[in-house]
Amino acid sequence: MGTMIDTLPDTIRPIRYGDGALYLLDQRLLPGETHENRYVDAAGVAAAIRDMVVRGAPAIGITAAFGVVLACGAAAGSGRADWRGQVEQAIAQLAASRPTAVNLFWALDRMREVLASCPSAGEAHARALAEAERMLAADIAANRRLGAAGAELIEPGRAVLTHCNTGSLATGGFGTALGVIRSAWAQGRIREVFADETRPWLQGARLTAWELLHDGIPVHLLCEGAAASLLRLGQVGWVIVGADRIAANGDTANKIGTYGLALLAREHGVRFMVAAPVSTIDFDTSEGSGIPIEMRPESEVLELAGRAIAPPGSRGWNPAFDVTPARLIDAIVTEHGVVQRPDRERLVALREGIASR
Ligand code: MRU
Fold first, then answer.
1. Is the peptide bond before 31 cis (omega within 30 degrees of 0)?
2. Among 52, 103, 140, 166, residue to substitute to test ligand 1 (most atoms within 8 Å of Cβ)
3. Pick from 120, 225, 231, 296: most CB atoms within 10 A?
4. CATH class of residue range 144-356
5. Superfamily of domain 4-143
6. 3-state class of 48 per DSSP?
7. Would the pTM count as exceeding 0.85?
8. What beta strand segments (E) does 83-227 contain?
9. Which keywords describe this protein according to UniProt (predicted)?
10. Could you confirm whether 6 is annotated as catalytic?
11. What is the DSSP letter of 74?
12. Bind-site residues for substrate
């Protein structure tokens, strides 16, 4: 069953840096158009994160790191003595772009650490660029490792169901939950892949289906309202999702609809896997109720592709994420190991294991 994890198909890259600029694949236009936008300042990068040009927890973090690179470049170019103040302002702007994915704050903290010992803006620029490039490469490597670890949990012959987009588009590359699915598919462990369309933003329909087909993996799309009927059929062995933030007790924030899927999975005896790099675990947030949940515009619910689908005067309610309690999760799969039946103690053990290596 072994597959060389470095040779699995994974051809999409949403984030690219070159010629002093950041290039982001505009995910709002997919699957109809593949177009890269060019960014030369941190304000533009913060707006790109807020407006969903780039989305997905790890991808947001890496993008913000490159936003800091651009801020350092601008500070070096300005020749001003208060370059640290300029960069701090940009970091604050990037941090305000989206509240839930902890990878954003993790990446910005990491960049702050790197800059702390830099004597000049020029050196800060060089060090920030090296760190952002390293972060991007490390994310892809971590995803390949956690993909292989998650695949090992999947007994051959069943289908899987996933939610939102957790693939190359949502990360530096390869993906988290989709990384597990890529690995398991390549090993012949998965009979069929089902993907929720993921209302209201349609990450499943527009992005996951596009990405899987792009890399040669067939997919069946369903409205998430059909998930209960699918799980009752008994063909699905695992529901596999990503995470935007995992609290210290294992409660997990992910795309709205994930909690409902976890309840359905438990009811139907289907196992539930969360796949995420350790940078998504927030040990400073004790439990799920402490995770800030982003509210997005009502128009995302009331409209579809810019056209109203509800009568004038209807109000929308649009939380972007929900929290799945740890007791509904069978495994959290990370690049540093699998935590079965996650709870506070088992996550601390994971952290201590990493620290002692
Ligand atoms: O609003 P989005 O598209 O940024 O939400 C993305 C998700 O909820 C993903 O499942 C999560 O970030 C994990 S991505 C590897």
1. yes
2. 166
3. 231
4. alpha beta
5. translation initiation factor eif-2b, domain 1 (1.20.120.420)
6. helix
7. yes
8. 158-162, 190-196, 220-222
9. Amino-acid biosynthesis, Isomerase, Methionine biosynthesis
10. no
11. H
12. 55-57, 98, 203, 254-255
